[in-house]
Design a protein that fits this description.
This protein is mainly alpha-helical. It is built from 5 helices and no strands. Helix 1 crosses helix 2 and helix 4 packs across helix 5. About 15% of the residues are buried.
Length: about 100
Amino acid sequence: MREIQYTALHPSYRTLYDLVGEDAMIKIYQEFKGTQLQLPMRLYDRTAVAAELNGKSVDARMMKKYSQMYGFTPRWIKNAMLGRDVSMQSGKRNIGRE
């Protein structure tokens, strides 16, 4: 494998190098070079989270825990736990809107 010249890396690849290391940066480069990636703000998919929470006991303490864990509002979490359709609910955490 060739030696990487860190100072000559494009800023995006330099950031990746700093975050994940040389080997992972090379793998990402080889897999996605030339592709523009747009990553969602949320780590978790709303459909998968709703399926995971559906039917769980609605408890204020657990709603808060899931809200912090998944990044959705407590109201969205409660609706998901109750099996309500949350596909069109944004679940954004807006201050003063709960």
